Amino acid sequence: MSDSVAKRSQASAAMVASAAKGRALMGGSDAMRQAGETYLPKFPSESLEAYRARKDSSWLFNGYRKTVRDMTGRVFDKPVELGEEAPAAVKRWVENIDMEGRDLSTFARQVFEDAMAGPGISFIMVDAPQRDGDVTRAQAEAGGMRPYFVHLRVEDILGWKTATVNNATVLSQVRIMEEIKEPDPDDEFAEIATEQVRVLDRSEGGVQTRIYRKVKSKWLEVPEMASTSQLSEITIIPFYANRAGFFTGAPLLDDLSDVNIAHWQSQSDQRNILHFARVPILFAAGMTTEEGPLVISSGAATTATDANAKLEWVEHTGKAIDAGRQDLKDLEFQMETHGLQLLVVKGQQSATGEALDAAKETSTLSMTADQLKDALEQAMDWLGKYGGQTFEPSVTVNKDFGVHMMGAQELTAMLTAVNTGNMSRETFLREMARRGMIRSDIDVEDEIERIEAEGNVMEDAE
Length: 462
Fold this sequence. Notes:
Helix 4 (63-75) packs antiparallel against helix 6 and helix 8 (254-277) runs antiparallel to helix 9. The protein has helices spanning 10-26, 28-35, 48-56, 63-75, 88-93, 104-117, 137-142, 254-277, 319-337, 351-386, 408-419, 425-434, 444-461, and strands spanning 81-82, 121-127, 148-152, 157-165, 168-184, 187-203, 206-215, 218-221, 227-228, 236-240, 243-245, 248-249, 281-285, 310-314, 395-396. The protein has 462 residues and is α+β, with helices and mostly antiparallel strands. Strand 11 (243-245) and strand 12 (248-249) form a beta hairpin.
């Protein structure tokens, strides 16, 4: 068998390379130091020892990671919710959607952050264990043999092929790099990690799965692990934070990553010059080496035969330090304009200006949240089909990023509308919940019934 089964395609390699900057920045100072000269070039004539000292003393002002997590936090300020029409079995499954303890919202958050953090794309695979023999639905669920989600990163996808079916572009083949861990037969406390390639092929009889493992430097198929899916399509859906093409993405925050790396380099220069500027140099004039070495101490003195000899401390003027400090401030401001809002304090502006800023900030984020909704609904559809649960999936992803609590005037106006019959109580309560004035998970219908019941009690008391 050719080793090309484990070879990364050109398109996949390009996405992995484009994600590298974001991945390093998300790893913080340690990851940037490990990247070495990739993001912190060594100066000409700088010794390796001096470079390592400069690199190890540098730290990252991580505006990139802050922005990614802030944008993700806005979307997931409210949990992802599955529609009420979902079957009871599916509602149970989403409480542990990946069979690793994560619910649907927690799983979706990781997928969203992964795409935002580097490649602009992430993937959800719907999988299900192979059933042997006649197994009922109840037996399968009792034994954990039910469908689940798997999160795939761009680094996991080795390559893919497409086909046109009913005038639509679909996946015809996908290769996935996996790592499996098995018990070490020689050590009960150790595990052996093994790489394997999963190949999914679409055919008329269903999706065929082949597994390849490396044996003595050769990738060989493991025939006993082959299987055929009950579905006719490859159940991997991409989530596009920034779509570049079918099954491909591009970094959404590429400009921000470049500015943050420039800040990393400038900050390293600043720390380096501060180190030297803080240590003054003792300059001796008119003294010879025959007069012996100088000893700098509060309990020692030195002499010189030359009447014009002198000692003085030479210190840095500080102009370069001020220039470096200003450069860092400029870069921080540029990071703010590329999406970072919480790290740099803004000046006062009008309410209209703030509203316009919010609209610009949330428009791209809103569209990205829509993309996540579409991906999750497709994945939920496959989940239902794998588990024999046919329904029209509906998923709610939060897009109320600019919503704030109502002011006194707004609240008074809405109460007046309710009292004059121009707004229903249900609409009023739902808007209160959306604005965070009351619990978001409140049952509006139950609340209305309680209000009416309390009103009847008051009337009877009178």
